[in-house]
Amino acid sequence: MRAVPALVWAVVGALLLVCTGIGYLVGVQTAGPAGGEEGVNYAAATPGRGQAAPVAAEDGSFDATVHGPRGGEPITGPEDIDRIHRRDPRDPFALGAVDAPVVVSVFSDFECPFCAVFANETEPRIIETYVERGLVRLEWNDLALQGEKSEAAAQAGRAAAAQGRFAEFQAEIFDAAAKRGRGHPEFEESDLVEIAEAAGVGDLDAFRRDLAEGVYAEPVREASQWGASLGLSATPTIVVGDRVISGAQPWEAFRFAIETALLKARMGDEGR
């Protein structure tokens, strides 16, 4: 029997992989709950097992000046989009395993009502469905577009992050924003202090001092300028792997994007 050339086997293998990918994506779009639970990780990507909580300094504080792309590397075109995701174990604005197969980077503004919708309705589902399984890492980026109020709230978020309470502060401030209706919440400094207290920020005197002295004013400006340099002019903007999603889209849009990114991650691992 004549041997089949290696090139033919390679082509057949590639076609099978493409067909598998197409079938997978169709499954993600059409599959309903299985066994009473939503199907997750159709690609069977390997979950991350690395550092999930940010690494503190020796004095127990956190570097709340973190911003920008991974390692400070420039982003010059679409081919560099993966550098948006920092994967920095010191990052106090991140949630989830540092080696998760997919990173979801959120560019957001505490004064943005649509950001509150995403944070209150969609982000908890991403956390429960993917982050807690080690499949996704969430990373926050300040994109303060609403003027002084946005910048002050972003500085407050960083002051909370310095004490390791950013996720709690984010949850509290967006909850407070939703309670104020659909407009811009227009938080005052006294509101930000109350939110920090509710979020469990331990040293409120230090928090107040950081706000009064503008300790994080420059990092907030630099982070927002970096987002603008990427062409981002609206919030929320969410980068799922290498796909950009604008606005508080329905849950299924994010689920499909994450599942697609998991497939890409799995295919990338197999190609190494």
Automatic annotation (TrEMBL):
Ranges where the record places region Disordered: 64-83
SUPFAM superfamilies, sorted: Thioredoxin-like
Pfam families: Thioredoxin_4
Presence of the UniProt keyword Transferase in the record: no
Domain Thioredoxin-like fold: 93-259
GO molecular function list: oxidoreductase activity
InterPro entries for this protein: Thioredoxin-like_fold, Thioredoxin-like_sf
Annotated keywords: Disulfide bond, Oxidoreductase, Redox-active center, Signal
Family membership: Belongs to the thioredoxin family. DsbA subfamily.
UniProt name for this protein: Thioredoxin-like fold domain-containing protein
Organism of this sequence: Corynebacterium sphenisci DSM 44792
